[in-house]
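Changelog note: in this version the structure field was regenerated for every chain. One regenerated record is shown below for reference.
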Amino acid sequence: MSTEAVRSHIAVDLGKTNCRVRLDAGRASTEVRGHGFPGLAAEGGAELAIAAIAPLVASLGAEQLARVTGLAIGAAGADSDRDAARRAAERARELWGFGVAIASDVLTAHIGAFDGAAGTVLIAGTGAVAFEVGDDGSARRSDGWGPWLGDEGSGRWIGQAGLVAALRAADGRGPRTALEEDAASIAGDLVGLPRAIMGGGDVARALASFAPVVLANARGGDQVAQGIVDAAIDHLAAAAASVATAGSPVSVIGGLTDDPEFLRRLLDELGRRHLSPRRPSGSSLDGAAILAARRDLPHERYAIRV
């Protein structure tokens, strides 16, 4: 077997919940998973990133690592704290000796969705952001401002709107809704709901966990839930339309796409706004793999390489 045949790359998708590491060697691949981290913008973010990645890379084995020619990381918060991103990349290079690229997980999601080509990716998960990259490498972003200032239409936004509607109904300030009973079941009663939601370490994710309940009630005909879902679809489509040009391809990814009815309606709304929805080619992990193997992408200027 030639040396060229066994050259390999490592791709890392490092989010706030999970970390995925994949070794690609020709047609063969090995993937391992572990816990995520708070994000590069968090205190000690660079060190926490390496702490999440290092044991997974080590588990691939010394023989496999000896053949690696490069590693690319798509990490939450890399666009918010580029200094921390660079420190993480430099530390990774010190540990393993091969070239390292690091970029935002939004960027690697875009690369994966379009196989390295231009287009707009709409991420609809716990958070929400639309990100467009042109053929010339120009980029535009809409929303993605986090759970307290933005991410409108996201899973967090839907879940929070549903819980607020439930509390309003209980107080008599809003219309009755089946969401009231569902919200009460979280803590046994509505009095304990704020503590149940706010008492954990990840409030945004706790709020987002109620989104599937809102979506289910909307499908069941609850008018309050339907209004929330309608507004979420409008917010997400507006974010995509604000950065994408008419007729340009838009790929939708993220946890909300697991709901077929929600995805169908969102794609219909994108089409109504003269955009061209298309199925994503791959994932953020696939995007990191492409970034590890190529330097000719329109996204190159937004990555850090060491």
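Spot check on this record: The first helix runs from residue 3 to 6. The chain has two domains: 3-115+283-305, 120-277.
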